[in-house]
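Task: sequence in, structure out. Protein: Cold-responsive protein kinase 1-like.
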Amino acid sequence: MAPEYAIQGIVTSKVEIYNFGVVMLEIVSGKKNAGYNFNHESEYLLDMVSKTDRTLMDLVDKNLSGIYDAKQAITILTLAVMCTNISPTLRPRMADIVSILVGEKTFEQINPPTVEDHP
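Result:
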């Protein structure tokens, strides 16, 4: 759940971008956003992303046994991290996300959000 939604209860396009980022993380990692580890302690996917001892590639589902396109995995994981930024203003626009996913733009070509992008 996007932090601003949890606090204010208002749905915006940036909340949906956050949720999309969580779904991308779940798909690539093969894990649910919230779960429990073997010690029955809560474990959150977004916490794993922020651990400094991990790289993005550490998040890729181990069940894939290395059979995946690493460049695509990095692209999706990078987008997911951008989408789940705690600050809504720093999350990309959906149009930019799609442009990167279909190969029309690179990360360097995404313009920072402008005032018009905010609800």
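Helices lie at 3-8, 13-29, 45-50, 70-83, 94-101.
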